[in-house]
Design goal:
It is a single chain. The chain is an alpha/beta fold. It has a single domain (5-309), classed as TIM Barrel (Alpha-Beta Barrel), CATH 3.20.20. It is 31% helix and 11% strand. It is built from 11 helices and 8 strands. It has helices spanning 5-8, 53-63, 84-94, 115-121, 135-142, 146-159, 186-201, 217-225, 229-238, 266-270, 306-309, and strands spanning 23-27, 70-74, 97-102, 125-129, 171-175, 207-210, 253-256, 262-263. It has an 8-stranded mixed sheet with strand order 6-5-4-3-2-1-7-8. The chain is globular, with a radius of gyration of 19 Å. The protein starts with a helix and ends in a 12-residue tail after the last helix.
Amino acid sequence: MLDTWPLLKNSHFPALKRRPLEILQVNLGYLCNQQCLHCHVNAGPKRKEQMQRPVIERLLQILERPGVHTLDLTGGAPEMNPMFRELVTRARRIGVKVIDRCNLTILNEPGHEDLCDFLVENRVEVVASLPCYLEENVDSQRGKGVYRRSIAGLKQLNAAGYGHDGSGLALNLVYNPTGPYLPPGQQQLEADYKQRLLDEHGIVFNRLFTITNMPIARFGSMLISKGEFEAYMNLLKDSMNLATLDGLMCINQLSVDWQGRLYDCDFNQMLKLHIEHPAENRPLQLDDLDDIDLDSLPIRVADHCYGCTAGQGSSCGGALE
């Protein structure tokens, strides 16, 4: 896989100022039952990295801090971590909101047949990947048969109450472009998704999040191999929207990798742009948070950050404007 970092590091992206921590986004490991082209994590069935108990115990301590209200779980397929269910259950007891970034196909994998019931019991918000409502586009990006398995997963979630108004069980979908272009307007695309999925499959959901493909990992490598990297970066830079800067996810969110190392966002994690310890030449760890004031540390930026500010903006919660 071709490395995009040398093409990103010399950047003029503006400096950002951190606000108090509210959200922990935690990567439980890179093991996944899928291997998608656009995956900025480079996850797959052969990855072995998994978060272990000592890090999870420390996470739970951080979640008890005032102001921290959300645990956002990602991977890989976060549900494939053996401690996923214990972490969710204990986090909910603390009173924080839990988000499961689910690829949908995990719901019908052997050993996960009761996953939907578990998510309902713990009132977990599901953010589900469905990069298009067209079968051919999804399968070309995520693998043959993934669309039909995703639809089956959505129907299972709907049957359990997810996505229905008044149920309290939020089901949000995620759209990624299938190529080197920006997502269309989130509001109109959400309306299109809702109409198509209802008409063709009887599926309902709450919101659609549009997320720009980042020029890193597999997607960035593909751009380089096709000679499209520079053009895509120019598109991101030319489309920069200054109004999105205040809503960037790195402002109030912390990204944690499977070893407990800290990053400003999930994309920085994949580029290994850790938050640096202010006094020592090493990555900041969860264990350092008792002694280090995060607000005093700079947010690390590079050219991939233009992906979050292009057009309507892009974050783990969708468009920013």
